[in-house]
UniProtKB/TrEMBL annotation:
InterPro entries the UniProt entry points to: AAA+_ATPase (IPR003593), ABC_transporter-like_ATP-bd (IPR003439), ABC_transporter-like_CS (IPR017871), ABC_transporter_ATP-binding (IPR050763), DrrA (IPR005894), DrrA1/2-like_C (IPR025302), P-loop_NTPase (IPR027417)
Lineage: Bacteria, Bacillati, Actinomycetota, Actinomycetes, Micrococcales
Protein known as: ABC transporter
PROSITE patterns: ABC_TRANSPORTER_1 (PS00211), ABC_TRANSPORTER_2 (PS50893)
UniProt record, GO biological process: daunorubicin transport; doxorubicin transport; response to antibiotic
Amino acid sequence: MIHARGLSRTFDTKHGREKKQVQAVQGVDLDVEAGEIVGFLGPNGAGKTTTLRMLTTLLKPTAGTATVAGFDVATQPVDVRRSIGYVSQSGSTSPEALAGEEIVDHGMLYGVGKQQAERRGRELFEQLDLDGLWTRQPRTLSGGQRRRLDIAMGLVHDPGLVFLDEPTTGLDPQARANLWTHISALRSERGSTVFLTTHYLDEADALCDRILVIDHGEIVASDTPESLKRQVAGDLIELIVLSADQVAPAAARLSALAGADAEVADRTVSVRVPRAGTELPGLLRSLDADGIALESIEVRRPTLDDVFLELTGRSLREHA
Ligand SMILES: Nc1ncnc2c1ncn2[C@@H]1O[C@H](COP(=O)(O)OP(=O)(O)OP(=O)(O)O)[C@@H](O)[C@H]1O
């Protein structure tokens, strides 16, 4: 559905009199197959929006190629646009028009006949829990309802591929979870392919089959959330020893287990291992044999934030 090779975008900027170039996206290769829900993550300024704008033909690449829904973004932009839905961060509803009118107009803009746009619009209202809101002005809707209306607009011409730019930013947790259900249903009920950017790691974890991580304009990881967590971070074993003199022998045990230096803070010693479950019984036996008494031992499964920290040196939570 989406295939990019060496996709790049440079911006010319001015700092006072000095002209500079910003490499916003540098040689991005990416492949998204039909029916996938792919999350595009990265810290602020990593190049997410610039990539999305190139893939949706709103911005020309300075190098590289991309085909979207089978069409070339540079030479067949009109065909690309007809084949995709794009829901931007700011949404596209005008506050004064009626919600239903907006959706019909939007469909007609894409060349859908009026009757068909209305039929399709009403169907989407039902699917997206917007029943009864056809004649309401978008400004009178709740944040979650407005976001779902934005998504309905992006879908009225029945695209097989939908780009969602930060679909749940600014929504409360309940409205976010509700929108995740609707986004999942796009795939299960319509077979749509979804490419979304997000700052929320729990969103990517809950919703996406695959995650692409971009940093400084380059893709630094592409995998399922589960294997990213397993490969990049591993489980954290964290133990607290009873007395300070047992910190050093405990650290030596854990370092040997992990094949890397254990971290020590006060009486807490920790390491990351690929699978803590298989290591714990042996570890507990050997600590016992060494006479190391524990106050507690805990295992933490890795989170996507650990993955981020490992890959980019930054925590996404700082920006969420
Ligand atoms: N029109 C522009 N002119 C100059 N620089 C730009 C322009 N658009 C983007 N940039 C720069 O390109 C880099 C990537 O920006 P981009 O908006 O793609 O990042 P992002 O990952 O979407 O960030 P955010 O999460 O903050 O939305 C940044 O350094 C940004 O300042």
